[in-house]
Amino acid sequence: DDWELKICCMGAGYVGGPTMAVIAKRCPKIRVCVVDISQKQIDAWKTDDLPIYEPGLLEVVQECRGRNLFFSTDIATEIEAADIIFISVNTPTKTQGIGAGRAANIKNCELCARTIADVATTGKIVVEKSTVPVRTAQAIARVLQSNEKGLKFQVLSNPEFLAEGTAIADLMNPDRVLIGGQQSEEGLAAAAKLVSVYAHWVPREQIITTNLWSSELSKLVANAFLAQRVSSINSISALCEATGADVLEISRAVGMDDRIGKRFLQPSIGFGGSCFQKDILNLVYLCETYGLNECAAYWNQVILMNDFQKKRFSEKIVASMFNTVTGKKIAMLGYAFKKDTGDVRETPSMFVLRDLVHEQANVHVYDPQVKREDMWIEMDYTCGMNKDNTPRLEESVVTAPDAYAACEKAHALLILTEWDEFKTYDYKKIYDSMMKPAFVFDGRNLLDHDALRAIGFEVHALGKPDPLKFSDL
Ligand code: NAD
Ligand code: UDX
């Protein structure tokens, strides 16, 4: 047992799994074990049918599993063995009680700290990897310090910036690694130890250290700024549709200003995913807690704009299709919140699906990675819609085996996720199989609209001039 270091990660989800797999790959002499309270989750990590889909992840897991990467539900043993313990558990928006609908629930983080304080027999470095409200490290430290064994713990903040669908690439080559720690001798030593782990593959100048509170808050701020860009461009897409300007031309023109930058200016039917909305609401609630109501309202507007964009898209579908979709078959291509993931948490597609079900359409969904049962779980969790309170929900939503089946005899085809494979289909064949007029609503501006119009489709795109409505000068 001559490991350079032993790491335990509590939480084997979208962050814990890929992050630890990449640490194991890049640090063969470090022993990494990911633990979880969910037996099902841990069992899946031990097979080749991993619990999450992420390009390149399986290869990394296969390379390291059994060598220096392990998965276990024996939490106590693994905590005891570890030098560094990451807390990478979910911190969802509270659904009831104080701050319901806005505050992040950190009960899972506190529980992890209590478990560590309970079972550890030597001091540890405890790393907050989960996204948490600023000053959570203080709560974690107090719980840890309340152990009656006289053990000393150091708490670090090390937020994760990976995006789903590109997690492995992001982890292998991060823009930066952020480590916050207490500015005491012990705190700085603990931070230096974590720096040395990342320094196995991340250039030293890209690993930055700060105080604890800056590190915790930077994560919320980064997500708020990113989401703000999406809401900003989405607000402009609405103005484009009213004026005949083209939002993609605007993204290009505006993004070429180095100060603004090209990325994250893609209009969409709204941002989704487990982080943006949750983390902005967390920031809004923090501002309110400190009596900063103008700051709270400012950031909350990013969410309101996103809600508007999602609603606008459903309304456009119904209005264009002669104000009724009742009984009509609609093909929905893409359900995940972005391409290259099967994750449906907060996916904007769900809100379009909800609205179409309320309009009594028959929706045929095709997504290369989404599991049907995950659609229902999220629909119930986020929209409160389930088969008990929505008659015919399961009959009016069909999951199609492929896009061609979804489109056959459909009145409209919706593009909701920007999967690459959607660009490769034979749209003439699809057109021939559809009802006429055959509508396309491209919520990602993914397809070649001129080519579709030449085939005969009536195309509606986000923030793109509608040739039926606008002409040049
Ligand atoms: P997840 O739901 O995929 O995984 C969390 C896991 O933690 C689950 O498997 C759950 O069973 C486990 N867990 C809960 N309580 C536990 C406990 N007491 N002991 C052991 N395991 C426990 O969540 P995620 O998407 O991986 O997110 C984790 C954290 O990382 C969140 O705070 C999130 O905001 C943040 N984050 C997520 C992303 C992302 O893209 N998903 C990116 C950056 C940061
Ligand atoms: C985000 C952050 O990017 C990441 O740094 C953080 O760690 C977790 O949250 P993620 O939610 O996985 O990552 O994906 P991201 O690529 O940020 O996309 C979020 C949503 O915004 C998606 O629904 C995406 O389609 C949408 N989006 C993104 C746009 O609509 N337009 C864009 O230009 C970019």
Summarize the topology.
Layout: E1 5-10, H1 16-26, E2 30-35, H2 39-45, H3 57-64, E3 69-72, H4 75-81, E4 84-87, H5 107-119, E5 125-128, H6 136-145, E6 154-157, H7 167-172, E7 177-181, H8 185-198, E8 207-211, H9 212-243, H10 247-255, H11 276-289, H12 293-320, E9 329-333, H13 348-358, E10 362-366, H14 372-383, H15 393-396, E11 397-399, H16 403-407, E12 412-415, H17 427-433, E13 439-442, H18 449-455, E14 458-461
Parallel strand pairs: 1-2, 1-4, 2-3, 4-5, 5-6, 7-8, 9-10, 9-12, 10-11, 12-13, 13-14
Antiparallel strand pairs: 6-7
Helix pairs in contact: 1-3, 5-6, 9-11, 9-12, 11-12, 12-13
Domain UDP-glucose/GDP-mannose dehydrogenase C-terminal: 331-449
Active site: 275 (nucleophile)
Enzyme class: oxidoreductase
Q: Care to describe what's here?
A:
With about 475 residues, the protein is an alpha/beta fold. The protein folds into two domains: about 5-200, NAD(P)-binding Rossmann-like Domain (Rossmann fold, 3-Layer(aba) Sandwich); about 245-460, Rossmann fold (3-Layer(aba) Sandwich). It is about 45% helix and about 15% strand. It is built from 18 helices and 14 strands. The protein has helices at about 15-25, 40-45, 55-65, 75-80, 105-120, 135-145, 165-170, 185-200, 210-245, 245-255, 275-290, 295-320, 350-360, 370-385, 395, 405, 425-435, 450-455; strands at about 5-10, 30-35, 70, 85, 125-130, 155, 175-180, 205-210, 330-335, 360-365, 395-400, 410-415, 440, 460. The strands form two sheets. Strands 3-2-1-4-5-6-7-8 form an eight-stranded mixed sheet, with helices on both faces. Helix 1 packs across helix 3, helix 5 (about 105-120) runs parallel beside helix 6 and helix 11 packs antiparallel against helix 12 (about 295-320). The longest helix has about 30 residues, at about 210-245. The chain is elongated. The chain starts with a strand and ends in a 12-residue tail after the last strand. The model has no long low-confidence stretch (mean pLDDT about 95). It binds nicotinamide-adenine-dinucleotide and uridine-5'-diphosphate-xylopyranose. Uridine-5'-diphosphate-xylopyranose binds near residues 266 and 337. The site of nicotinamide-adenine-dinucleotide has 26 residues, from helix 5. It catalyses: UDP-alpha-D-glucose + 2 NAD(+) + H2O = UDP-alpha-D-glucuronate + 2 NADH + 3 H(+). It is an enzyme of class 1 (oxidoreductase). Its EC number is 1.1.1.22. This is UDP-glucose 6-dehydrogenase. Keywords: NAD, Oxidoreductase.
